[in-house]
Amino acid sequence: MIRDITLGQYYPGDSLIHRLDARTKIIATLLYLIELFVVNNFYGFLITAAVLFVIIAISKVPLKFIFRGLTAVFLIIAFTFVLNLFMVDGRVLWHWKFLTITYEGLSRAFFMAVRLVLIIIGSSIMTLTTKPVELTDGLEKLLSPFSKIGLPSHEIALMMTIALRFIPTLMEETDKIIKAQQARGADFESGNLFQRAKSLIPILVPLFVSSFRIAQDLALAMEARCYHGGPGRTRMNEIRFDRGDAVAAVLMLLFLAVIIASRFISF
Amino acid sequence: MSISVRNLNYVYNPGMPGETVALNDVSFDVADGTILGIIGHTGSGKSTLLQHLNGLIKPTSGEVYINGECITDGKVKMTDIRRKVGLVFQYPEYQLFEETVRKDVAFGPKNLGLDEEEQEARVKKAIGLVGLDYDEIKDLSPFELSGGMKRRVAIAGVIAMDPKILILDEPTAGLDPSAHRDILAMVRRIHDEMGIILIFVSHNMGDIAEMSDRVMVMSEGRVALEGTPAEVFSQSDRLAEMGLGVPPAREITELIKSKVPQFESEALTIDGAAEDIKKYMEEARG
Question: pTM, whole model, 2 decimals?
Answer without folding.
Answer: 0.75
